[in-house]
């Protein structure tokens, strides 16, 4: 009986760099949570969610855009912005510029953020997504600038901003420039508020540090994917500080929901529909939003 | 202690952390009359690591906010070494809104190792609390002057550090993560903190040259060796900047807020390339 009340197995930190890389070939995908094997084709078709236990694999930026945007509706913004090395930063003989080049070659993206205009259910929106494979989607100057421009464009174009964030936090290689991106991106969001335009934030695994403590959590609606780890300090840092194991489920999306920090936990399969529904509701709010001529033909307002 | 121009970034980190350096309440007690401390976030508690209240500063009613380190171990434990918890940020936000309502200028003293890396702070939503403050400060309709008097540590500092003027004492430091944390992230070795401090360019002169802070208050003698003179110099600098900012608000807060937005909007360095050889998602989403 006593066993029943014993503390559950401890929370384990999610260290896997990219769970997909552990799979020997592209044919099968193994769920890191329940061990279920799935055909890669089916796995992709199911938006990388384990059909057995519901584990949400990480998506890269391209997959994320495909998940949310209407087909062929994405027009990328600011692709020409790439990292600069304002500090002359170098770690063990490797400069920041070299590291960024290497990461680009490996990940196929030039920065941790991709932004652009999309339509969702025929309605235009600004979309900003992160790509964790680029330096842990840490927030530096390019990230901050792309996000700020997206906010300002959404405000000017009179449509909502949707951000999808996974991030390890601030980019050490840009020092205080990266801390100030928290102030900059958050300030840019005030331009949306002035226009009474909504910012819908989607928090995905893992989301930490400067991103969680800035633009991503001052949204009008905050949605997290099931099981996503979201916090300020990482679990390892906290464990080292308090010298005890963290409770099971600590910093998960469900934990945040229970503690009143976020609005909803929405599974990936329902994410686009949830956003679409919200956009529909804001559409009818006072002072809103998208002028009728911007609506894609054939999509009458509900 | 080496002469000012020979000090390494790590030397500055050590000076910034010197326990004999004046802390927020030293400045308040010597620069202000009639300090009325205001407590609590009206929801969950009163954080001793972040103090605030109303005061008269050189003829003006102002709102003061600051991280507060302890003078001894016992007090440091009570004040969590100057690391605020969510209640602290929420108290700060309450006092900032209060200041805005009565059009009191806000003076903040930044002196924290950073946010609290603890279980309860995470449960209490510290990321959300920090974000709320940063967001509010972007459009707060009253002048804000912030002075980094010791350690400016990450989000814990920024949560009261978004300001029309950010001043740094010559030997203070300001960084995105403590040098130890950055070294742990970069090399998995906190002992390489001195290298991280140098690489991250945490000193006042470097940050002024980047345009990330607005002014440096010289310390001809380091603050811990001559606290009285340092405090007066800080008071003079705050007064000078406040005068300018208040002039700017003569016709309402519009010009002040525009300038604040432009200042933060311009922060960041990047390169614009013409290369389009990277495959963009646009061609792959179909």
Topology:
The complex is a heterodimer of chains A (302) and B (286).
Chain A: H1 2-5, E1 28-30, E2 37-39, H2 40-45, H3 61-68, E3 75-77, E4 81-83, E5 90-91, E6 94-95, H4 96-107, E7 113-120, E8 123-130, H5 141-157, E9 161-167, H6 175-194, E10 199-207, H7 209-212, E11 221-224, H8 235-242, H9 253-258, E12 264-265, H10 268-283
Parallel strand pairs in A: 8-9, 9-10, 10-11, 11-12
Antiparallel strand pairs in A: 1-2, 3-7, 5-6, 7-8
Helix pairs in contact in A: 5-6
Chain B: H1 9-17, H2 24-31, E1 32-37, E2 50-57, E3 60-67, H3 73-78, H4 86-102, E4 106-112, H5 119-123, H6 126-138, E5 144-153, H7 154-158, E6 165-169, E7 173-175, H8 179-187, H9 193-199, H10 204-209, E8 215-217, H11 227-248, H12 254-265, E9 270-272
Parallel strand pairs in B: 3-4, 4-5, 5-6, 5-7, 6-8
Antiparallel strand pairs in B: 1-2, 2-3
Order of helices and strands of chain B: HHEEEHHEHHEHEEHHHEHHE
Compute the average pLDDT of chain B: 94
- The SSE order of chain A reads HEEHHEEEEHEEHEHEHEHHEH
For the report, how would you describe the main beta sheet of chain B? 8 strands, mixed
Using the alpha-carbon principal axes, give the shape of chain A: globular
* Rg of chain A, nearest Å: 20 Å
Give the N-terminus to C-terminus distance of chain A in angstroms: 56 Å
Radius of gyration of chain B: 19 Å
Strand-residue proportion of chain B? 15-25%
Supply the number of structural domains of chain B: 1
**Which strands sit side by side, in order, in the main sheet of chain A?**
3-7-8-9-10-11-12
Number of helices of chain A: 10
**Strand-pairing-aware structural class of chain B:** alpha/beta
Which homologous superfamily in CATH is the superfamily of the largest domain in chain A?
2-enoyl-CoA Hydratase, Chain A, domain 1
Helix content of chain A: 25-40%
Top-tier CATH class of the largest domain in chain A: Alpha Beta
CATH topology of the largest domain in chain A: 2-enoyl-CoA Hydratase, Chain A, domain 1
Mean of all residue-level pLDDT scores of chain A: 88
CATH class of chain B equals: Alpha Beta
How much of the polypeptide of chain A forms β-strand, as a percent range?
A: 15-25%
Instruction: Classify the helix fraction of chain B into a percent range.
Output: 40-55%
């Amino acid at each position: 009986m006593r066993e029943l009340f014993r503390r559950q197995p401890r929370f384990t930190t999610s260290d896997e760099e990219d769970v997909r890389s552990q799979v020997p070939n592209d044919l099968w995908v193994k769920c890191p949570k329940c061990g279920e094997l799935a055909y890669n084709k089916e796995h992709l078709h199911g938006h990388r969610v384990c059909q057995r236990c519901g584990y949400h694999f990480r998506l890269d930026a391209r997959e994320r855009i495909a998940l949310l945007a209407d087909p062929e509706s994405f027009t990328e913004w600011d692709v020409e912005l790439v990292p600069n090395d304002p500090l002359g930063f170098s770690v063990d003989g490797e400069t920041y510029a070299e590291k960024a080049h290497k990461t680009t070659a490996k990940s196929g993206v030039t920065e941790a953020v991709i932004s652009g205009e999309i339509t969702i259910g025929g309605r235009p929106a600004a979309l900003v997504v992160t790509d964790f494979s680029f330096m842990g989607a840490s927030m530096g100057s390019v990230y901050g600038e792309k996000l700020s421009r997206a906010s300002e464009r959404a405000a000017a174009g009179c449509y909502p901003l949707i951000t999808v964030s996974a991030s390890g936090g601030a980019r050490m290689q840009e020092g205080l420039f990266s801390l100030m991106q928290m102030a900059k991106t958050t300030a840019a969001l005030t331009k949306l508020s002035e226009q009474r335009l909504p910012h819908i934030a989607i928090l995905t695994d893992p989301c930490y540090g400067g991103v969680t403590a800035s633009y991503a959590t001052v949204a009008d609606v905050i949605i997290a994917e099931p099981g996503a780890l979201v916090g300020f300090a990482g679990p390892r840092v906290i464990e080292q500080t308090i010298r005890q194991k963290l409770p099971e489920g600590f910093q998960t999306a469900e934990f945040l929901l229970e503690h009143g920090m976020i609005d909803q936990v929405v599974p990936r399969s329902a994410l686009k529909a949830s956003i679409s529904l919200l956009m529909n509701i804001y559409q009818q709010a006072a002072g809103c939003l998208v002028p009728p001529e911007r609506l894609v033909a054939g999509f009458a307002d509900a | 202690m080496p002469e000012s121009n020979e000090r390494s970034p790590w030397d500055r980190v050590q000076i910034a952390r010197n326990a004999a350096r004046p802390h927020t309440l030293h400045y308040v007690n010597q620069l202000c009359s009639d300090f009325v401390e205001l407590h609590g976030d009206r929801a969950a508690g009163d954080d001793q690591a972040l103090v605030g209240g109303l005061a008269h500063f050189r003829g003006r009613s102002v709102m003061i906010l600051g991280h507060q380190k302890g003078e001894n171990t016992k007090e440091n434990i009570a004040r969590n070494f100057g690391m605020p918890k969510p209640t602290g940020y929420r108290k700060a936000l309450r006092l900032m809104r209060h200041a805005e309502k009565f059009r009191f200028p806000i003076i903040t003293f930044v002196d924290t190792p950073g946010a609290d890396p603890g279980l309860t702070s995470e449960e209490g939503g510290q990321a959300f609390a920090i974000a709320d403050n940063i967001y509010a400060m972007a459009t707060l309709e009253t002048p804000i002057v912030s002075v980094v008097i010791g350690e400016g540590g990450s989000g814990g500092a920024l949560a009261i550090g978004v300001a029309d003027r950010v001043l740094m004492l010559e030997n203070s430091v300001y960084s995105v993560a403590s040098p130890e944390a950055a070294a742990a992230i970069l090399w998995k070795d906190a002992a390489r903190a001195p290298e991280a401090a140098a690489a991250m360019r945490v000193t006042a002169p470097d940050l002024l040259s980047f345009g990330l802070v607005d002014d440096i208050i010289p310390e001809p003698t380091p603050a811990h060796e001559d606290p009285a003179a340092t405090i007066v110099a800080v008071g003079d600098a705050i007064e000078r900047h406040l005068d300018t900012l208040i002039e700017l608000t003569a016709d309402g807060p519009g010009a002040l807020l525009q300038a604040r937005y432009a200042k933060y909007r311009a922060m960041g360095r990047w390169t614009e390339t013409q290369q389009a050889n990277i495959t963009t998602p646009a061609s792959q989403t179909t």
